Amino acid sequence: MNEKDIYKGLNHIDGDLIEEAANPLNNGRKPAGRRLGKIGKTIWALGTAAAVFTIFVLGNEVVRLNNELEKSKRSGTVELSDENNKTLEEGNAVYDHKGFCNIYKTLDDYSSLYAVVSDIDQRDKEMMEYDDITGGVAEYDMEDVMSDATGSMENAQDYSKTNVMTEGVDESDIVKTDGNYIYMIESGQISITDIRSGKPKDKEILIPEMESTSDEIVEMYVSEDNLVLMTNHYDNDAQGSETITYSYDVKDKKNPKLIGSSRQDGVYDTSRKINDTVYVFSNKYITTADMSEKEALSEDGLQKWVPKVNDTIIKSDCIFYQEESNNGMVVSSFDINSPEKTIDSKYVMSGDAKIYVSAGSIYFYRVFYEGRTITSISRMDFSDGKLIPGESETIRGSIRDSFAICQQKDYLYVLSTEDDSSTQVNTLHVFDSDMKQVGLINEIARGERIYAARFVGDYIYFITYRETDPLFVADISNPKKPEIIGELKVDGYSEYLHYWDENHILGIGYQENGTGDNDIKLTMFDVSNPKKPKEENSFLLKGNYYSTAIDGNYKGILADSTKNLIGFASSKDWESTVYELFTYDKKEGFSIIKETTFDINNDDAYRGLYVGDNFYIAGNSDITYFKLKK
Q1: Are 565 and 610 in contact (CB under 8 A)?
Q2: What is the pLDDT of residue 69?
Q3: CA separation for the pair 551, 495 (Å, rounded)
């Protein structure tokens, strides 16, 4: 942005524009002579809220542009535009931002990082003062889920594994099994229960020697004789929180041996594991905390604010920033057999970005507002622990969650919903390995929003919802010419879709029951003819139910066609937890083969597992066991 652009921006945001934005506040009187109903009141309140938000955004922009102007005057230089850093173009479904480093810029040295963070600190301080005057604006959270995984499609061994998003990419969880033992996170410890004879018996306890009694074990991996624990270490000093990973040799269950540990700044967000390599993601907010430049750039000073991995600050050329936020994600990789040796590390100042991980790439996607809702998508490839920044792109609208993104072969598929106008509209984008758009379907289900999706081979199955539950089938066999080939409308809506077999897609969601509560609905879609999908069978679990597994925590869902089992926990009447285990038959439909009730309302804590004909429900420091009928 050059000085001319800054003045142009300031002149555009003049008093008349702000006054016009405030009209709903000045003229927001209720219509005379008649009462407003609930809908009318809601519309009037939304108009008022929108006006407040508009004034807030304009005020924020004035502060930002003034900061840019002052920075330009202080430095005596201006930032020149360049062909690779184009501005957003109105009216295009895709905006032309080429390269990872045009969304996230690189740094020459830590002095450059200090300047960026100090400017953001100052802006945030000014905005806090502005909020004190205006009363601030409530924050909102844009959730996001789609994938190339077929979930637990086929198990080479006869025991269940964690339901993952991407086939071949393992994910950590609170309960794991290796077919011989069940590993479960309890309060500050790991229980290792022997199930070799079927019925749970001897239980060993591993209490990790963590650095503080307040540290928390969040998730874990189990592979062969290795146990990897992901923990949060809470520090009261200025260094902030850390994510510490402990790797154990558990060949001798009675005497696990610590192989080593890895640590990185920030609160644990998520992780992935491919073979013996673990990739860890943590959220880290950085600030110079009013330090002078001289102090901040000293050897001791750098340790206080630059993100670290294994006590070593991340190199300046491995830090990628954008000027909107000083909150970001630390990414590191290591081998579980030598976790103290960092393979690679990066820090991406991504704000509140979410991630999708394929078998070879990480995609950071972040929603922001530039006159309309925009989502930036940046690709970072990885191989054997090495992290390689790739290309970036921006699209209109938002992405519901990481199931709405899928990389297959050399192409990335993205489903987005634009919700800025009076009606919603959905789009399918197809990008090549350089993040150039090569395929597009516009105007999908206008007036509805994408709720769930699943990518399987040459097809995408996705659900939109308003009053009915339309299942759409898109053919992506030619990435450059994707097309909608099938559609089916049924009652209710699916929050989660799962590949069942080559002819069926399982949907799990809700249906309103007329009492204000939701029944849980299971649907088996027949997609043997993708052009004419059918609802083969459905089942309603009646009552006041809610399930975190259905609403985003997909690891809590067991869906295995080889064993013909579907299981998940849910909260009933917000008082107890019920684990439902189903089987499916084309003629008989869904049948409950076991319903287990727990007197604790914590459905997120339970996992269902099988080993052969033995079934286990593990959670809240307890294991329930029963035999499956043959």
Answers
A1: yes
A2: 43
A3: 6
Range with lowest mean pLDDT among 50-59, 248-257, 330-339: 50-59
Helix (H) or strand (E) run with residue 186 in it: strand 181-186
Residues 224 and 585: their CA atoms lie apart, in Å, by 35
Rounded to whole angstroms, the Cα distance separating 560 from 584 reads 10
The span from the CA of 454 to the CA of 472, in Å, is: 11
Pairing of strands 308-309, 312-313: antiparallel
d(CA 455, CA 162): 19
Element (H, E) at 177: strand 175-177
Q: Please tell me the predicted confidence (pLDDT) of residue 39.
A: 38
For 404-443, the pLDDT digits (tens) are 999 998 999 999 999 877 788 999 999 999 999 999 999 9
How many alpha carbons fall within 13 Å on the CB side of residue 516?
A: 1
| Eight-class DSSP state of 298 | S
Distance (Å, whole) CA 574 – CA 33: 43
Paired tokens of 581: 């285990």
pLDDT band at 142 (very low <50, low <70, confident <90, very high): very low
The strand pair at 319-321 and 342-348 is best described as parallel
> If we measure between CA atoms, which residue out of 570, 567, 577, 565 comes closest to residue 548?
570
Q: What is the largest CA-CA distance in the chain?
A: 81
Which comes out higher in pLDDT, residue 238 or 318?
318
**For residue 572, what pLDDT band results from cuts at 50, 70 and 90?**
confident
CA distance 441 to 427: 6
The candidate with the shortest Cα–Cα distance to 461, out of 147, 114, 54, is 147
Neighbouring C-alpha atoms within 13 Å toward the C-beta of 277: 18
Q: What confidence score (pLDDT) does residue 129 get? A: 54
Q: What is the C-alpha to C-alpha distance for residues 226 and 220, in angstroms, rounded to an integer?
A: 10
Residue 304 corresponds to which tokens in the numbers above?
């206080």
Q: Tell me: pLDDT of 590 over 60.
A: yes
Give pTM, 2 decimals.
Answer: 0.80
Measured distance CA(306)–CA(238) in Å, rounded: 12
Q: Are 417 and 433 in contact (CB under 8 A)?
A: no
Indicate the pairing of strand 242-249 with strand 319-321. unpaired
Q: Is 385 left (phi over 0), alpha (psi -120 to 50) or beta?
A: left
With cut-offs at 50, 70 and 90, classify the pLDDT of residue 9. Answer: very low
Task: Reduce the DSSP state of residue 125 to 3 states and report it.
Answer: helix
Neighbours of 505 (CB within 10 A): 24
pLDDT at 212 over 60: yes
Q: CB of 342 within 8 A of CB of 365?
A: no
621 is written with which tokens? 């420091």
Contact criterion met (CB below 8 Å) for 309 and 345: yes
C-alpha–C-alpha distance, residues 141 and 537, integer Å: 35
Q: What would the two tokens of residue 458 be?
A: 């040459």
Torsion of CA 568, 569, 571, 576, to 10 degrees: 150
Q: Is 139 exposed, middle or buried (0-12, 13-18, 19+ CB in 10 A)?
A: exposed
